[in-house]
């Protein structure tokens, strides 16, 4: 059922409660919707619920754990939502959960370890949760989690210590977390990890021990992380499967005393490699002996000397 963009809708019509066979309900951008009906938890056939950008939604039904088939819940941009239902963890079929942009949430009182089917989680913590300095340890129990996105938290200093146990995790995005100081030990155990993005993590100065052993990491982005140490590059160039590296505005990685050139070891024979650097410090790029270069960007590398840019013959 599609009721998206019904901006005049303030509450669901009572008759909708009789439609027990509804599997999908799209209420995206119903900007005046304030609450769902109390009997909403009886919609036992519902699998997908989209409440994205319902900016005036104040509450979810107090008991919605009865939605035993619900697999996709999008609450992105529900800025006035103050709390989650008391039995939220009963949604054991939930595979995708988006809590980003829920700036009114005072706490995330969810026993995540109960959401055993969760595969995709988009989490955002705000100044309302100022007492929270680390993510819930229960996240480490989400053994089916494949995609994790975490953003916009000025207080979080660390990830759960058991984060390396998430053996199914394929993609991690961490951005706008200026207090995050380190990635947890055991990070190298994320054998399925293919994509890692670190954006605006100003307190993060190094990558964890064993990072270069990540067997499946293919894409790495480090953006606007000004204090990342130059020694990190040694780990990056030894990643066995990485074919796309993007480093922008992370000046410590390429300090004058650290690194002024792209090492040949970044480019692996037989692989298509994309290497993107945005810095003024690079002076030399040498990629001799390669069969194929797919993409090399040296944007804003004002010190790059023309006769030091050499391509394979």
Automatic annotation (TrEMBL):
Residues 130-265 form the Disease resistance R13L4/SHOC-2-like LRR domain. Gene3D superfamilies: Ribonuclease Inhibitor. Keywords: Repeat. SUPFAM superfamilies: L domain-like. It comes from the Eukaryota. The keyword Transmembrane does not apply. This is Disease resistance R13L4/SHOC-2-like LRR domain-containing protein. It comes from Taxus chinensis (Chinese yew).
């Amino acid at each position: 059922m599609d009721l998206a963009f019904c901006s005049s809708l303030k509450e669901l019509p009572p008759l909708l409660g009789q439609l027990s066979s509804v599997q999908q309900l799209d209420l995206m951008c119903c900007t005046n919707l304030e609450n769902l009906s109390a009997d909403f938890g009886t919609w036992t056939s519902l699998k997908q619920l989209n409440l994205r950008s319902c900016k005036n939604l104040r509450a979810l039904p107090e008991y919605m754990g009865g939605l035993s088939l619900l697999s996709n819940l999008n609450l992105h941009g529900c800025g006035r939502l103050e709390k989650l239902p008391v039995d939220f963890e009963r949604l054991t079929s939930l595979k995708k959960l988006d809590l980003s942009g829920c700036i009114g949430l005072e706490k995330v009182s969810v026993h995540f370890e109960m959401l055993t089917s969760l595969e995709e989680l988009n989490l955002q913590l705000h100044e309302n949760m100022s007492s929270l300095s680390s993510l819930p340890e229960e996240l480490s129990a989400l053994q089916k989690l494949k995609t994790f996105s975490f953003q916009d938290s000025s207080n979080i200093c660390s990830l759960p210590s058991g984060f390396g146990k998430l053996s199914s995790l394929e993609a991690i995005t961490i951005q706008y977390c200026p207090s995050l100081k380190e990635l947890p030990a055991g990070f190298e155990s994320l054998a399925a990890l293919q994509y890692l993005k670190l954006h605006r993590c100003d307190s993060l100065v190094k990558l964890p021990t064993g990072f270069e052993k990540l067997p499946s990491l293919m894409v790495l982005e480090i953006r606007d992380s000004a204090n990342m140490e130059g020694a990190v590059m040694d780990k990056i160039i030894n990643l066995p499967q990485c074919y796309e590296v993007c480093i922008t505005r992370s000046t410590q990685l390429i300090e004058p005393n650290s690194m002024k050139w792209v090492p040949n070891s970044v480019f692996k024979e037989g692989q298509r490699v994309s290497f993107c650097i945005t810095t003024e410090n690079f002076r030399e790029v040498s990629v001799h002996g390669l069969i194929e270069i797919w993409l090399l960007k040296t944007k804003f590398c004002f010190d790059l000397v023309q006769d030091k840019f050499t391509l394979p013959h």
